[in-house]
Amino acid sequence: MSxxxxxxxxxxxxxxxxxxxxMQRLLAALREAGGRPxxxxxxxxxxxxxxxxxxxxxxxxxxxxxxxxLLDELTEALWEYPGPTVACVDGHAIAGGCVLALCCDWRxxxxxxxxxxxxxxxxxxxxxxxxILALARERVPRRHLEFVLLEAGLHAPRAALALGLVDxxxxxxxxxxxxxxxxxxxxxxxxxxxxxxxxxxxxxxxxETRRRHFEEHIxxxxxxxxxxxxxxxxxx
Length: 236
Hints:
Layout (H helix, E strand, L loop, with lengths): L5 E4 L3 H4 L3 H14 L4 E4 L4 E3 L4 H5 L3 H19 L5 E5 L2 E3 L1 H8 L2 E5 L6 E2 L11 H10 L2 H9 L6 H7 L4 E3 L2 H12 L4 H12 L7 H16 L1 H11 L1
Parallel strand pairs: 1-2, 2-4, 3-5, 4-6, 5-7, 6-8
């Protein structure tokens, strides 16, 4: 891999579950990367199994608001990262993990029928925060969007490819991801970044109605006792 590439592994307990700590570390890494070509990959056999549900289950309203806003910040930072990005989905990419992959310019999954990729928030009784829903609308092909979100399934890599959740499936996902990143790094960087940001800026922006919906409905719904009961049952 070129010395110019910023290699960013996702590393955390619980199959790289996205806790406050992990999201803050990923944000700091994106700032440190400074626009270099970025390879986002999993570790220890997983990409990311999604949000850290143990942390989510213990949050009250103010803490939940901060947690979801941090998720928003990370999503936007990766979506608008000023350089080429490739996700090497070399393990399960579920819910929030799938969101991270969707933010990247190109997504390569390992050709392993046991691997699962998908957005299963509805199956957990969780409503999508507005920015995450906007990302899904932008990235998942319209003909598959309702199936992917409403049926909330978890898909093997080749099914995920057919649904538009990944762009490529390869036996050696690491090599294919690095080759894709080299390809995306070939055009003059300034033109690549300017065009990418022209396409992406504003896509995740929220109007006042959606901001109010987040504050008045989404955050309380994530804190509701029946929501937490479902999450606790999933953790058993």
